[in-house]
Amino acid sequence: MKAVQRDAGYLDDILLAIGKINRYVNGMDLADFVANDMAQDAVLRNIAIIGEAVGKLSKDLTARYPEVPWINISGMRNRLVHEYNGVNLKMVWNTIQQVLPDFHATIQAIRSTQQVSE
Question: Residue 78 pLDDT more than 80?
Answer without folding.
Answer: no
